[in-house]
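Review form for a predicted model. The reviewer records the input and the model, then writes brief findings.
Reviewer: anonymous (R2)
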Amino acid sequence: MTDPLRGARPDGSWLSRLRPAGGLTALLASLTLFAGDAMAHGVAESDKAFIQANPGINIIPYIYLGAKHMVTGYDHLLFLFGVIFFLYRLKDIWAYVTLFAIGHSTTLLAGVMFNIHANPFVIDAIIGLSVVYKALDNLGAFPTLLGFQPNQKAAVLIFGFFHGFGLATKLQDLIASRDGLFANLVSFNVGVEMGQVIALSIILILMTLWRRSSSFSRSALIANAVLMCAGFILTGYQIAGFFSEQTA
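Model under review:
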C-alpha cells in the first residue's frame, strides 16, 4: 500500500515475515533492559539533587535538564523514530513533530502546575504502547487487524499528551518548592524542544543515508518489527514495576 504522504509501507502480510528480525530484536531487547528506567522519562539522581537543592528560578539549568531529558530519553526517541520513519517531506515531519510537541508541552506544564497525579508506571506503560502503536502503524497492520486506519496525526497528538504527562509525574515527586515553578517549567520545556531538534536532526541524517541504500525496503520491515518488540519490552517492564510496587 502506498501513502502519498508517507511513502511505501508494508501491507498486512508482514505477520508472516517477522522471523528474520529475531537477532535484532534480541539485541534491542537487551539494550532496553540494561538501560533500565534511569533515563526513560526519568530524572537522574544528580538532576534530582540539583532540583531539590536549588529552589527559585533557574532558567539555564532547567533548559539543560530539558534538553538532556530529550536527548537521553530512549522512549521519546523510539516513538519519534517510528513517527518519521516513512515521512519523506520536511513539511510532513514538521507537522507531526509539532503535534507531538504540543501534546508533550501541554501535559508537562499542566500536570506539574495543577499538581495532577497519576501512577508513573501506568503512564510509562502507555508510553511503551505508543512505540508499539507506531511500529504497527508503519507495518500497515491496523487495516488488517482492525479493519480501519486510525487517524495518524490525532494518535501522535494523543500519545504526545502521555509522553508529557509521564515526565510531569516524575517532576512532581522532585520539586520541593513552587518558587519560580512556572519559569522553570517553561525553561525545561524549551530545553526539551531544543533537545528534540538535535535528536531529530541526527536521526534524519542517518535515515536519509539508510533510505538511499538498496536494502532499505527490506530492512524497514525488520526495523519496525524490532521497534514493536522494544515497545512491548518497555510496557512489560513498567507493568512489572507497577505490580512490584503494589505488593511491596
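Findings: The longest helix spans residues 216-247.
Further findings: Residues 1-7, 18-25, 34-40 have pLDDT under 50 and may be disordered.
Recommendation: see findings above.
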